[in-house]
Automatic annotation (TrEMBL):
Family annotation (SUPFAM superfamilies): MOSC N-terminal domain-like, PLP-dependent transferases
InterPro entries given in the database record: Aminotrans_V_dom, MoCF_Sase_C, MoCo_sulfurase, MOCOS_middle, PyrdxlP-dep_Trfase, PyrdxlP-dep_Trfase_major, PyrdxlP-dep_Trfase_small
Broad class of enzyme this protein falls into: transferase
Keywords recorded for this protein, A-Z: Molybdenum cofactor biosynthesis, Pyridoxal phosphate, Transferase
GO annotation (BP), single: Mo-molybdopterin cofactor biosynthetic process
EC nos: 2.8.1.9
Upper lineage: Eukaryota, Fungi, Dikarya, Ascomycota, Pezizomycotina
Domain of life: Eukaryota
Record: active site: C397
Name of the protein described by the UniProt record: Molybdenum cofactor sulfurase
Biological role stated in the UniProt entry: Sulfurates the molybdenum cofactor. Sulfation of molybdenum is essential for xanthine dehydrogenase (XDH) and aldehyde oxidase (ADO) enzymes in which molybdenum cofactor is liganded by 1 oxygen and 1 sulfur atom in active form.
PANTHER family for this protein: MOLYBDENUM COFACTOR SULFURASE, MOLYBDOPTERIN COFACTOR SULFURASE MOSC
Length: 734
């Protein structure tokens, strides 16, 4: 049975077809409830089989060549381009298709054209826009956010026929990617009619809408000037986006500066700066470099498979609308024992007026417990994952939608951002490094961890020392130390150490009580740590020395600091260049164990994101948080809107208070000086140029390259047993 028979099916037969097709074509969904189609939809087995056969049965060359295989690729690409226009009902005489990596890349092509206009451009966008549309404002000469549909209606109605020096661009989503609310598609046609002398160009974000609904561009007078698509949201595979552009908009792209391979007919390099853009189709001028030919060929297979399995997009729309209606009704009916509602649904009209023309199959909601307290979205996500439910939580790249749904004004969002930092995200949140310069050990989520004056419990209590010199080894000279992985086994009461090439691990007791050691298992010896001579407890076991020596290639063994016994207080202190008071009342430098400079190192997710943006802008590889060997990673509150991070805010912070510790404060001692050690990949031990090259150019102060902040307990916070856990709310202050 195929989708071609669906019109004649009874409801029972249709349900049977969907059930059997799901099992056969989507085996990856077995025992899984996948509810993140707005992110990407799963691909079918038939599509992958068809694509595999296409690749194995044909030879496809580079379209920029002229060989038979290249000509085959060119023909397939052009056939697919035409087929996609047909899929959207777009006249190929009026519209062209530009293939992109995703819808955001398609938006950037439009922005780059408008940015190069002599007078720049004026930009208006709807508050329901995806972050990628909001970001366009940064390139505009003037910009305005329309807070409601009625404001847009008023603006369209008062358009005059005056000629404006700068072109105007109005952008909005056909469907909110957060709530599923569908915006009027006739705004594009009305703007074309009202602006007959110097019209406003329209950019329609159809990424969310087209994933489950037919996109009809057949009325050329009503269609947008620019339409962006995420094809993987429709078909699951391939990972492609597209820009459907009116050919009459071609003059806008003539001032485009950058040109890539395949977009020019001639380039002069010597003595003159001149090039001739492609004189053919518009897409030839905009598709820089070699096209992702295999992905485009896969798109052709995807469109054909979609038709076979599901029939028309109208049928997909009806099916998903029914499912969404069922889910909204189910959520609305969920109640606690006392009759209190569990779910609050956003952006949805009353269920009696649940109209597929105004509401797509996306549902945004929050949950409340029996005391009417909000359940954390991360908690919902964790519980859903355990039960095999795949959904998306957080801000979903829709800052305006979040602000409207939660009733937050800009000042409240900024306040939430300033105060709402959490100790990390779900990965690499809090770490300790039991052995100096070796790999970190991630503190389990939800595990309260003791904070001592010397730092986090079990952090840098051990080191590996050279058997001849007594110096502590460092990753600077021995990058393979990054692959030595310690594990704190509290049940067995031991620290386990696993070398990368070893079959078995070695272990030493966690206890500092000398009675738990064999009489000759350790010796008190001097060791050199960062140029300081400290008394260490050096393990004399030949097995330990042999294991570590084999792993690192130098004669070495394990040592512990401070020495075991009652007199185990640290006698090392933070470095002299770090402040002792910082205005928080401490006169004595904080004690440290084997860390280089301070008890605790903290970094900011916002700053790491900005650093990685700078690295990737130059074609480099993003830095993993592990290279900075931080104990605490501060990430924004889930309520913070995306796209409004505050990188380097830690430069102004004096400290933070931790909610769990009844307001106990941690003092920021100053920026952490960085060296080439941050270039060691903590997963492979290989040395790279980044991130130090970029840090040296962007974060150099008085000859010092800084990233992260040194941290210690403030005076008055050392009494009792203070603990912190990943996810604890912290308040920073300046």
């Amino acid at each position: 049975m195929s989708a071609n028979n669906l019109p004649d099916m009874s409801t029972e037969a249709y349900d049977g077809y969907i059930e059997s097709m799901r099992k056969e074509q989507y085996p990856m969904l077995h025992e899984t409830l996948y509810l993140d189609h707005a992110g990407t939809t799963p691909y079918s087995k038939r599509l992958m089989d068809r694509f595999h056969a296409e690749m194995m049965g044909n030879l496809f060359g580079n379209p920029h060549s002229a060989s038979p295989s290249s000509q085959r690729s060119t023909q397939m690409v052009e056939d697919t381009r035409l087929q996609l226009l047909s899929f959207c009902g777009a006249d190929p005489d009026v519209f062209d298709v530009v293939f992109t990596a995703n819808s955001t890349s398609a938006i950037k092509i439009v922005v780059e054209a408008f940015r190069e206009q002599d007078a720049g451009f004026c930009y208006g966008y709807h508050a329901d826009s995806h972050t990628s549309l909001v970001g366009v404002r940064e390139a505009a000469t003037m910009h305005h956010c329309f807070e409601s549909d009625s404001e847009v209606e008023s603006w369209i109605g008062c358009q005059d026929a005056a000629t404006y020096e700068a072109p105007r661009l109005f952008a909005y989503p056909a469907q909110s990617n957060m709530t599923g609310r569908r915006l009027p598609l006739d705004w594009c046609s009305r703007l074309r009619q009202e602006n007959f002398r110097r019209r406003t160009y329209t950019l329609l974000d159809a990424a969310a809408y087209a994933s489950t609904s037919p996109l009809d561009l057949s009325n050329t007078d009503a269609a947008p000037d620019f339409t962006v698509l995420s094809l993987y949201k429709i078909f699951g595979f391939p990972d492609l986006g597209a820009l459907i552009v009116r050919k009459e908009c071609a003059p806008l792209f003539r001032k485009r500066r950058y040109f890539g391979g395949g977009t020019v007919d001639m380039v002069v390099c010597l003595k003159e700066q001149w090039h001739a853009p492609k004189s053919g189709a518009l897409h030839e001028q905009l598709e820089d470099g070699t096209l992702p030919i295999h992905s485009i060929i896969a798109l052709k297979d995807a469109m054909e498979t979609q038709l076979e399995l599901f029939g028309t997009m109208e049928r997909v729309s009806r099916h998903t609308a029914y499912l969404a209606r069922r889910m909204r009704q189910g959520l609305a009916e969920l109640k606690h024992g006392k009759g209190k509602r569990i779910a609050s649904i956003y952006g949805s009209p009353t269920l009696e007026h649940d109209d597929a023309n105004t509401l797509g199959p996306i549902i945004a909601f929050n949950l409340q417990d029996s005391r009417s307290s909000w359940v954390s979205n991360t908690e919902v996500e964790k519980l859903a994952s355990v039960r095999g439910i795949h959904l998306r939580t957080g801000g979903v790249c829709n800052p305006g939608g979040i602000a409207h749904a939660l009733g937050l004004s800009p000042w409240e969002m900024r306040e939430n951002f300033s105060a709402g930092h959490r100790c990390g995200s779900e990965n690499d949140i809090m770490n300790v490094y039991p052995i100096k310069s070796c790999a970190g050990w991630q503190i389990p989520n939800g595990s309260p961890w003791e904070i001592r004056q010397e730092g986090l419990a079990w952090d840098r209590e051990w080191c590996i020392v050279h058997q001849g010199t007594g110096k502590a080894l460092s990753q600077k000279q021995h990058p393979q130390m990054a692959l030595m992985r310690p594990h704190l086994d509290f049940e067995a009461g031991v620290l386990r150490i696993m070398a990368p090439s070893a079959v078995e691990s070695i272990s030493v007791p966690l206890s500092k009580d000398p009675r738990s050691f064999e009489e000759k298992s350790f010796a008190q010896r001097d060791a050199s740590v960062c140029g300081e001579i400290v008394q260490s407890q050096t393990y004399t076991s030949p097995a330990i020395a042999e294991y570590l020596t084999k792993a690192l290639g130098v004669p070495c063994t394990l040592a512990r600091f401070p020495a075991a016994g009652a007199q185990s207080a640290s006698v090392r202190h933070s470095k002299a260049h770090l402040p002792r008071s910082g205005g928080m009342g401490t006169d004595v430098a904080p004690r440290i164990l084997l860390s280089n400079e301070s008890p605790i190192l903290t970094i900011s997710r916002s700053s790491l994101n900005r650093l990685n943006e700078q690295i990737k802008a130059k074609g480099g590889k993003a830095a993993h948080p592990a290279v900075f060997r931080a104990n605490i990673l501060l990430a924004e509150s889930p309520l913070s809107p995306p796209g409004q991070e505050q990188p380097w805010a830690e430069d102004q912070w004096r400290g933070m208070r931790i909610d769990r510790t009844d307001g106990a404060a941690m003092q920021f001692l100053g920026g952490c000086r960085r060296c080439q050690m941050v270039c060691i990949d903590q997963r492979s031990g290989e040395k790279n140029q980044e991130p130090f090259v970029t840090l040296a150019k962007t974060r150099r102060f008085d000859g010092r390259v800084l990233f992260g902040v040194h941290t210690a307990l403030a005076t008055g916070s050392e009494g009792g047993s203070l603990r912190i856990a990943a996810g604890d709310f912290v308040e920073t202050f300046t």
